[in-house]
């Protein structure tokens, strides 16, 4: 350091990889599956601070479920989980196509993030309320919401339950614990805390979940939600879906110099942890832990789901303009569907006859006939070509 | 009783009748609010039904929307209307639209109370009148009482309403009617007939204006503190004006307004808020659309100036009886 003071310059973070670059995730530390212990549900947030810097993972490279967080779901439940994720991916592919055909104005797919909402939904009980963003339709799919009704909403047709008042995919279903999606960012996060406070005020045992993306954690409402959740010890599970990209803005613009998004919870004394968002078993196990913690009055949990948005932000977006086309394939946490499929095969439960078959879609069986491929390339990310997974059923 | 006591009583009546009514805001719990409108409620109804909130208006409104979605009826206080702007997104994009966007699947029965208006040397951050920022938003009701009896009745109606209501309390009127003559001693509500607040739970319906003075020559449209300024100006000019207290800006009692202007043929509108795009502009349009062939003179607005609310020059800014009186005379001469 010299005595002379240099002119200041502005720090604008940049992602490691732009179009044309070779994706490099070597800085991304991924703990071994099973490495993070499962604390008791009444754990003091201070005693689990390290969980905000690690990642809860259950499925290892071989597809085995290992560690404290494994074993929460039966084989039938896992098969059903796979069916939910495949259903969502298939539905997405069809609706994406429908938008390109001019049948609807807009669509947002979940490609690569299916495990987050599909697995989380299984940890909740009837009467709980989700305050989702636009990329958690798995909460509906996994809770039995009719796909036809989703399509009616997307098409804004005469059977649309919202009477054409909302943008496609901005669903609302009180009956299915799915709060009306706003479309504005972050507003629902603090509303979920209010719903949870109301449950506590009323002496109820229901819980709320709030959802927000990595980019929207920068909104003031994120801070508001954390303050209110912390102060009133609200029975709420607050989820950050870190899918690395907020339209064209990489997560470092919202995260700044902080180590992880989950670590933001520390300043509020909120139990905070990260989970492998592409690991169905891990997402479910962590959701179950946080939901029980909330329901038993031990307070809120902040969960960062580490995942990757393999598709565009919406049908109005072309990611090749701002990130490498090869980045999705290089994403080190793989594809949630491939990983669960591999697990079912590895554990001896993924036979050809055990095909996840979405109701009303008899052509879907081919998907699981491909299971051998997953074994040859266990960690391989193949979502860059979404149609390949689902082509057989279209 | 004072307007503060009347507002407190409305809370009390509503909380006693329905345990879904919860009350919170900054300093609202133990202390009972900086203007004491919620004093005693925490002691009476417990900390889970009346409590202090963090200083985060967006959070206060945002959590209230969540509570309403659960099935509660939150009545929340924004400490000053001037502090509401951080919550504007939650009010405009969320509370106001929830019923519409979900096609009735979710609703938002919340009351957002806030002290409003000037006349207390509050400077730019404790004097604003932002009513037009809310009347402009589809899905909101906007109410402003001018006396204790109306404050209680309108607040009870607002709490009973199934949709969000912005409840603006003219803070200059909290302890007594104010005619704009700031150098005169304060008159207490105890000596005013409208300080005699009825017992019980009778509501004053939203959307009904009150004719405060009948007159034949001119109609003055006023609300909040300006009702007393109007009465003072009428007394000082001797003009036989009809003074209408709108009480509720949205829904608006257009019927009463139109009947009056068609009778008098002249109209002056007065409000504290800034002039351009103020609620007076909307009133002017409505009166013109409905009463054009009855008008004997152009409609005039008397308003705050298009500047931030000043501190030292408060009485040059505040539309007092002198400025309003000039306008009344001008309209009569035209």
Give the topology, please:
The complex is a heterodimer of chains A (394) and B (334).
Chain A: H1 75-100, H2 114-121, E1 129-131, H3 138-141, H4 147-155, H5 187-201, E2 208-213, H6 220-232, E3 236-242, E4 245-246, E5 249-250, H7 252-255, E6 271-276, H8 280-295, E7 301-306, H9 327-330, H10 336-346, H11 366-369, H12 371-376, H13 386-390
Parallel strand pairs in A: 1-2, 2-3, 3-7, 6-7
Antiparallel strand pairs in A: 4-5
Helix pairs in contact in A: 1-2, 1-10, 2-8, 5-6
Chain B: H1 3-17, E1 21-25, H2 41-45, E2 50-52, H3 57-70, E3 73-77, H4 88-95, H5 98-101, E4 111-116, H6 131-135, E5 141-143, H7 148-160, E6 165-170, E7 210-213, E8 218-222, H8 226-237, E9 241-245, E10 248-250, H9 254-264, E11 267-274, H10 279-291, E12 300-304, H11 314-317, H12 321-333
Parallel strand pairs in B: 1-2, 1-3, 3-4, 4-6, 5-6, 8-9, 8-11, 11-12
Antiparallel strand pairs in B: 5-10, 7-9
Helix pairs in contact in B: 1-7, 3-4, 8-12, 9-10
Overview of this protein structure:
The complex is a heterodimer of chains A (394) and B (334). Chain A has helices spanning 75-100, 114-121, 138-141, 147-155, 187-201, 220-232, 252-255, 280-295, 327-330, 336-346, 366-369, 371-376, 386-390; strands spanning 129-131, 208-213, 236-242, 245-246, 249-250, 271-276, 301-306. In chain A, strands 1-2-3-7-6 form a 5-stranded parallel beta sheet, with helices on both faces. Mean pLDDT of chain A is 89; it is low at 352-394. In chain A, helix 6 links the parallel strand 2 and strand 3 (236-242). The radius of gyration of chain A is 20 Å and the shape is globular. In chain A, helix 1 packs antiparallel against helix 10 and helix 5 (187-201) runs parallel beside helix 6. With 394 residues, chain A is of the alpha/beta class. The relative contact order of chain A is 0.17. Chain A is 32% helix and 8% strand. Chain B is of the alpha/beta class and 334 residues long. Chain B has 12 helices and 12 strands. Chain B has helices spanning 3-17, 41-45, 57-70, 88-95, 98-101, 131-135, 148-160, 226-237, 254-264, 279-291, 314-317, 321-333; strands at 21-25, 50-52, 73-77, 111-116, 141-143, 165-170, 210-213, 218-222, 241-245, 248-250, 267-274, 300-304. A 7-stranded mixed beta sheet of chain B has the order 2-1-3-4-6-5-10, sandwiched between helices. Chain B has a 5-stranded mixed beta sheet with strand order 7-9-8-11-12, sandwiched between helices. In chain B, strand 1 (21-25), helix 2 (41-45) and strand 2 form a beta-alpha-beta unit. In chain B, helix 3 (57-70) packs parallel to helix 4 (88-95), helix 8 crosses helix 12 and helix 9 packs across helix 10. The termini of chain B are far apart. The mean pLDDT of chain B is 97. Classes of the chains: A alpha/beta (394), B alpha/beta (334).
